[in-house]
Amino acid sequence: MKRRFGLLLLGWLTSLWAVAAEVTQVRVWADAERTRLVLDLDAPVEHELFTLSGPERVVVDLEGTRLSADKLERATSGPIRNLRHGVRNGRDLRLVLDLSGPVKARSFLLKPDQESGHRLVVDLETSGQARRAPERPVKSVDQIRSPRDLVIAIDPGHGGKDPGARGTHGTHEKQVVLEIARRLARHVNQEPGMRAVLTRDGDRFLSLRQRMDIARKHDADLFVSVHADAFRDRRVQGSSVYVLSRRGASSEMARILAQSENAADLAGGVSLNDKDELLRSVILDLSQSASIEASLEVADNVLQGLQQVGKVHKDHVQQAGFVVLKSPDIPSILVETAFISNPGEERKLKQAGHQEKLARAMLAGIRNYFYSNPPPGTYVALHNPREYVIRRGDTLSEIASRYNVSLRALRATNGLNGDRLYVGQTLRIPEAGEG
């Protein structure tokens, strides 16, 4: 689906849901590095955040939202001197945070969980400047739980009674991909803010949909299925990365819509059971389109990582209708690490050193994707990465802009005399004021 068409559909869908939300509570919490403002909501909202100078202010506009005056906690904390609110455009809520000095502001939404409902979180960072003491005690302080880890579901293909492909010298696909998947899981678990879930950690048979269900049970942010391809021509070699094709997405959508009892919570947390057929299909199509778009981006990152290890079968991401890629709510990729039918690649697949290289290459692609696209409320979203691995098409000026650092500082930190970069190169991102 074209991005523009998707945005038009999203706008239409949003208008169908234009029911006023209410802020049920306003909470403030501060520590030495950050001040956090939390708005408890009784429904999801669209919002916009921006800053103003002279004097310093942060403005938050919430569409179709109302706030009772008695719900606004008129307390100061950190750089917040005062909180004001008003009605904008007759239906939107505008919150204004009057500040004692400049801040770096960001916001994100949290979905309901077992303890809390919808929440809008606004974080203010003062870049180490001295914070203004509160004018009066805060009446209601609530420390938000630590940001969550990204969950990476890693799926070693085949297993148990299904050995997968077999190499010339008798190597079974199910065993080598399990070793690679275990190595990838270890590296993921060593990453701050990431946690791996293996669909199988032994020689066990799982159906294709059981693998998808395991990922969904753990609320996975990404599903990575690991395989080793085979072909009748033993000369064929190289790695490949697949995402779901549009044809595969369409057939899966038809299957889900035909089984209404399985349609709940398959569209980014939105239940489809209480929607009519047209609205259900639109919501699901939007979710699938977003999932495929994210899958393509992470797949491209992983493919670029694999190019640093050895030959790739095709230099672009491929699309197919593999069942394990059909989750409409989880970005999913399938990695063919090598052709086990090629004697040379079969030999490498059994080597611990090569398995390690493949696992590290996949991790590099996963890291690059999530550092560029951190989901709200995650550790990665709240902690800027201090390293960046160059991908095809990157420029130094774009990287400097992304991390809000100067070109001069970026060059000085990495000992660069010009702007030339190469794929796979690792840059250190300078801290504020460094360089």
Automatic annotation (TrEMBL):
Primary residence: periplasm
Substrates-to-products reaction catalysed: Hydrolyzes the link between N-acetylmuramoyl residues and L-amino acid residues in certain cell-wall glycopeptides
Superkingdom, taxonomy of origin: Bacteria
SMART domains listed in its UniProt record: Ami_3 (SM00646), LysM (SM00257)
Keyword Translocase part of the UniProt annotation: no
Entry's Gene Ontology molecular function annotations: N-acetylmuramoyl-L-alanine amidase activity
Keywords of the record: Cell wall biogenesis/degradation, Hydrolase, Periplasm, Signal
CDD domains linked: LysM (cd00118), MurNAc-LAA (cd02696)
Pfam families (alphabetical): Amidase_3, AMIN, LysM
Secretion signal span: 1-20
GO terms under cellular component: outer membrane-bounded periplasmic space
Subcellular location: Periplasm
Residues in LysM domain copies: 386-429
Cited InterPro entries: AMIN_dom, LysM, LysM_dom_sf, MurNAc-LAA_cat, N-acetylmuramoyl_amidase_3
EC number of this enzyme: 3.5.1.28
One example of a Gene Ontology biological process annotation: cell wall organization
Family, similarity comment: Belongs to the N-acetylmuramoyl-L-alanine amidase 3 family.
Protein name according to UniProt: N-acetylmuramoyl-L-alanine amidase AmiC
